[in-house]
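One-letter codes give the sequence; the integers encode the fold. A sample entry reads:
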Amino acid sequence: MKRHLEYPECSVYDLLEERSKEFPEFTALDYFGSKITYKKLIDKISKCAKALDAIGVKKGDSVSICLPNIPEAVCLFYAVNKIGAVANMIHPMSAENEIIRFIQLTESSLIFGIDLIGDKLSSVQKKCPQLNVITVSAARTMPFLLRLGYKLTQKKPPQCSGDSWDSFISGASNGQDISSHGKADETAAILYSGGTTGKPKGIMLTNMNFNALAIHSIDACGGLCPGMKMLSVMPIFHGFGLGVCIHTMLILGGTAVIQPKFSARDFPKLLFRYKPDIIAGVPAIYEAMLIDKSFDGKDLSFLKCIISGGDSLAPSTKKKLNKMLAEHGCKARVREGYGLTECVTGSCLMPADSEDLLSVGLPYADTFYKIIGENDQELPPGEIGQIILRGPSVMKGYYKEPDETAKTLRKREDGYTWLYTGDLGYMNEEGFVYFSQRLKRMIISGGYNIYPQNIEEVLSSHKDVIMCAVVGVPDQVMGEKVRACVVPSENCDEEKLRQDLNQLIEKNVARYAQPRELFFMRELPKTLVGKIAYNELKKEAVNEK
């Protein structure tokens, strides 16, 4: 029977404030060992909200937040929500023209940016005269010795014509303590994603979307308790980072261990320093764990919950990772989920006791999936088609893009509005979801539809393949040809590996889908949030010509 949960009709700030009254002395944020309790976090958010009021921010305004995972970014998200404004979340490493587009799209007149991109923000300000810039240093909230070391080792931030955070926050004494008690269906944040077309669009996510996701995630993970710690490395400007690593942990009453800068290679060091109960991240994190020698002889029994999302984790990689975890005393297994920014992030998750390496899990409570064919008809269990879903975490729509919204959010004959994901998959008779392919990654070669993930799973099954990516590259005769890019394990015999992989391909991949090219690489290019940058691999192939 489908599970039903209750969802509060309130804002994200109101739900956090409620939780802070339950656990005032619990640690909400841990930033390089500098710990902020729930009571102190609410005080900081209230002060930030007063400072926003003092400079004229009103309900419904767009406030751009262009920051990494630092305490000020968390405070800003909730402070903006407290006064009923909308948090416009922008990646700090976005190109200048992208930032300008996001500012102009949302008519934002205020941006908070990391001081390291001060020159870029100054340039943006020149092209957006209405824009006020406030810069923040990642060192500001660090413990004293770390702050000193940071300033000594980092280059001096570029000059910016905007104000500093300290100047901004000092104005709180001139502001009013305003709380809008925003409604559940009001937009809390705008996040950016390529969606089903690849063009970045502003995704409007409501208070209900974030609160439902938090309640869903806690319910689906099971066994989570207030006071637990999560290594929250996914970025706050990303649905996974903001929705799961920050909001879900704070609604749990847990501790989000945050870092302003992160790479998959740093993960083991952070893991043993903080010994979190929960880790959640993209496959690159877990692939890095498999090749890191620092795990030798180490105990991982402190891990209680391990979540992978944001991209596909090959079944063979899951198997290798589960084996490695067990060998290091960890009783938890990696649990893969599926979702997209249009529903904040995850919308289904593998049960903790399942040994199915192929499925991405069961839909969350009050979340419904269908698989449909080309004629919009619902397909029976086992047949591959487009994944569509509905539930309380599904977006309000694309900001100022009514046509794109209408294509993606569609009312069906059952009277419900469904999110058309543009992804391929199938479901079995028990309701488990199996993700097959991002639709836009499909390769068409000689008239055949080829799904790269199927080939990647074959390649990843070899013990000496750390990670791989399959892309379609231009070909005058076939339209596209299949290229496989493989990262081999250290010290392996590459010639022997090439022979083995060719044999695997011959045996397990249809002839029309077999890679015409097999490249070995030291590492695969990554996007700004740690996913494999398939477009970069395609561009490299074009540039070779």
About this structure: The first helix runs from residue 12 to 22.
